Amino acid sequence: MEHIVTVQDAVTAFEDFMEPTSAELDAVEREMPVILADVDLLDAHIVTLDRTPTELDARRIRRARRRALAARVALLNLTAGMSLPGGAA
């Protein structure tokens, strides 16, 4: 007779490794401004899906796009500064 291992045993064996590490949580925290800016940009686009965009809608989308780009640039500058040894530019 063969014993069948349950799926729960296979999953709970790695339970300690399933939680995010501190480094992963820090990375998500650093990327949060980019994530929120992208959500704002998506919201601006979603508003215009069922109607013809007005000038106000176009401005809202442009503003959200600029904020998303600025957040990405800030993140790139932050990570580039962190990866250089000695803080040299």
Describe the protein.
This protein is mainly alpha-helical and 89 residues long. 69% of the residues lie in helices and 0% in strands. It is built from 3 helices and no strands. The chain has helices at residues 7-12, 22-47, 55-83. The protein is elongated and about 75 Å long. The mean pLDDT is 85.
Uncertain stretches: none
Residue share in helix:
55-70%
Query: What's the gyration radius in Å?
Result: 22 Å
Along the chain, the helix and strand elements come as HHH
Roughly what is the average pLDDT, rounded to an integer?
85
The main pleated sheet reads as: none
Class from helix and strand fractions: mainly alpha
Proportion of residues in extended strands: under 5%
- Taking the alpha carbons of the first and last residues, their distance comes to 67 Å
Number of helical regions:
3
In short:
This protein is mainly alpha-helical and 89 residues long.
Keywords:
single chain; 89 residues; mainly alpha
Topology:
Elements: H1 7-12, H2 22-47, H3 55-83
